[in-house]
């Protein structure tokens, strides 16, 4: 989705009031009646219609014809505007540049502050693709069916923000958190290539150990990344050091399926190194012994508990993970088919593998961990590529 930064500056204060009123009204109305918008904004009905028209023309809101009444809903453009305005009012950012990343559930832009210092802005977009597939009777949907893309995107941003802060404070190689608002996160720009794009490294063995050490460090701190793969590991251009991004799916090591998530992270790295660099090591971390080591060394400082106490608590965690399970559960069937096709091609590349310890959930030809955890759990199900 394109962000029009120039347009952002030309919203009058009345238009802003009407936009904010539409956002507020959408908390309990799928389609917000114009009269309610006028009431919240404190404007006369007549006056509000013109403003609604001009906001709709710029795609900040959209007119919806309902069986019972006509009204408006906030669009992604409108929600982006409100978040970006909040960030620029606080002088956290000033301008929006090129888009650098587009994922299934986010857009990432280079942005800058007044002094021209570059940052990355990640806009969470849950529900962009698969929202239709969500079960309508989920508790978290409640009355807010139409607003839930907004709510879910905001929750994902909140979670990412909470984790980025805690990890950064504890010296993990993650981007520097700058600010956040609604569904947007501002963070330090990392001048790097995703590992996915790297064809050659000076020492695959060294990088492999660095990445496995990171998985171990996360676990000693009570955490599992949950999507630790070549897309979410950036390799700095100057130093070749890895930086880890993308935290909305992180889980605690006390999660019921923690071992499964841990093994999947480890397996993603092993598989990638085997295919890309033809590098294979007999050394890789095991869940139980990693946790025991952490306890023995007194390193277990329980960041999962710190994050839970920081405002992104269990309730939010549960709501977000139920959503993610629903979405990815539905997407799962298609992905499984895709994976079948891929694995045929890969078979030639793969050497048959005989690990001493084959996790239960790993296929016996040793190719990959199954994309779904053994029992339904409260977390996302990203596949390992
Ligand atoms: P998604 O959840 O959509 O996978 P990511 O957080 O993984 O989003 O970001 C998507 C892409 O955006 C990354 O692969 C990377 O290329 C780019 N990116 C994200 N954060 C930064 C950052 N702080 N600095 C530079 N590039 C980034
Ligand atoms: Mg990612």
UniProtKB/TrEMBL annotation:
InterPro entries named among the record's database cross-references: Kinase-like_dom_sf, Rio2, RIO2_wHTH_N, RIO_dom, RIO_kinase, RIO_kinase_CS, WH-like_DNA-bd_sf, WH_DNA-bd_sf
UniProt keyword Protease, yes or no: no
Domain RIO kinase: 65-289
Keyword Iron (UniProt): no
Major enzyme class: transferase
Biased amino acid composition, Acidic residues: 333-358
Keywords per UniProt: ATP-binding, Kinase, Magnesium, Metal-binding, Nucleotide-binding, Serine/threonine-protein kinase, Transferase
Biased composition regions of type Basic and acidic residues, renumbered to the chain: 359-368
Coiled-coil ranges (or none): none
GO cellular component, one term: preribosome, small subunit precursor
Gene Ontology MF annotations: ATP binding; metal ion binding; protein serine/threonine kinase activity
Cofactor: Mg(2+)
GO process annotations (BP): maturation of SSU-rRNA
Family: Belongs to the protein kinase superfamily. RIO-type Ser/Thr kinase family.
Name of the featured protein: Serine/threonine-protein kinase RIO2
Source organism: Schizopora paradoxa
């Amino acid at each position: 989705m394109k962000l029009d930064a120039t347009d952002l500056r030309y919203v009058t204060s009345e238009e802003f009031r009407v936009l904010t009123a539409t956002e507020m009204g959408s908390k309990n109305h799928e389609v917000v009646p114009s009269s309610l918008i006028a009431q919240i904004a404190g404007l006369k009905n007549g006056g509000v219609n013109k403003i609604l028209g001009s906001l709709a023309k710029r795609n900040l809101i959209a007119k919806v014809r309902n069986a019972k009444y006509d009204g408006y809903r906030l669009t992604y453009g409108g929600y982006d505007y409100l978040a970006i305005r909040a960030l620029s009012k606080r002088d956290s950012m000033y301008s929006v540049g090129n888009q650098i990343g587009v994922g299934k559930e986010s857009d990432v832009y280079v942005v800058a502050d007044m002094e021209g210092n570059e940052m990355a802005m990640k806009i969470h977009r849950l529900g962009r693709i698969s929202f239709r597939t969500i079960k309508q009777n989920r508790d978290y949907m409640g009355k807010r069916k139409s607003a839930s893309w907004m709510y879910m995107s905001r929750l994902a941003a909140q979670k990412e923000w909470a984790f980025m802060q805690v990890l950064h404070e504890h010296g993990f190689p993650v981007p520097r958190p700058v600010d956040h608002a609604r569904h947007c996160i501002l963070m330090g720009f990392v001048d790097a290539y995703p590992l996915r794009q790297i064809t050659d490294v000076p020492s695959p063995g060294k990088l492999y150990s660095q990445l496995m050490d990171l998985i171990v460090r996360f676990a000693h701190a009570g955490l599992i990344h949950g999507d630790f793969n070549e897309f979410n590991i950036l390799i700095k251009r100057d130093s070749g050091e890895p930086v880890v991004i993308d935290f909305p799916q992180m889980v605690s090591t006390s999660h019921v399926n923690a071992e499964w998530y841990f093994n999947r992270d480890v397996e993603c790295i092993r598989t990638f190194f085997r295919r890309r660099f033809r590098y294979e090591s007999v050394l890789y971390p095991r869940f139980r012994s990693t946790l025991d080591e952490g306890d023995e060394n007194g390193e277990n400082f329980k960041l999962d508990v710190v994050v839970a106490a920081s405002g992104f608590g269990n309730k939010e965690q549960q709501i977000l993970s139920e959503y993610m399970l629903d979405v990815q559960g539905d997407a799962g069937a298609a992905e499984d088919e895709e994976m079948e096709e891929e694995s045929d091609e890969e078979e030639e590349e793969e050497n048959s593998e005989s690990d001493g310890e084959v996790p239960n959930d790993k296929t016996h030809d040793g190719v990959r961990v199954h994309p779904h955890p053994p029992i339904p759990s409260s977390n996302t199900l990203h596949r390992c590529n």
